[in-house]
Design brief:
The protein has about 120 residues and is of the alpha/beta class. It has 5 helices and 5 strands; from the N terminus they run E-H-E-H-H-E-E-E-H-H. Helix content is about 35%, strand content about 15%.
């Protein structure tokens, strides 16, 4: 499976024990495997570090930062940026609208209004 051949099945996971790594190695003989996470690659590597493996080489696909950063066979794929796509001006207008909308909601418990920017 670990080639550039078309992928018909992809098994994704976000954490692994030593036993799970062995199971995934066996599974990789039949289907493509990959990891997925909301964090950056450094944080994901900490979560997947089992027996000092190079996890990028162990898996066919990897998706960090909720899919904004992707890897296939250990090599990074072209990355996308939402802000670069829509432009800074339009992005600011959208964020302002969303923040005003959320701030004006009448909900039972409201603690804060914020937008996470770390993966945009």
């Amino acid at each position: 499976i670990s080639s550039n051949a078309p992928v018909k099945k992809l098994v994704l996971f976000d954490r692994a024990s030593p036993e799970m790594i062995q199971l995934l190695r066996d599974l990789r003989k039949k289907v493509a495997i990959g990891f997925v996470g909301g964090s950056d690659l450094v944080k994901i590597s900490e979560q997947l570090s089992v027996d000092n493996i190079n996890f990028l080489e162990e898996f066919d696909f990897g998706f960090a930062e909720n899919g904004l950063t992707a890897y296939r066979l250990g090599k990074p794929l072209e990355s996308q940026s939402f802000i670069k796509t829509v432009g800074e001006k339009d992005y600011q207008e959208m964020v302002n609208f969303i923040l005003h909308y959320i701030a004006d909601l009448n909900i039972p418990i409201k603690r804060c209004v914020c937008v996470m920017l770390d993966c945009l």
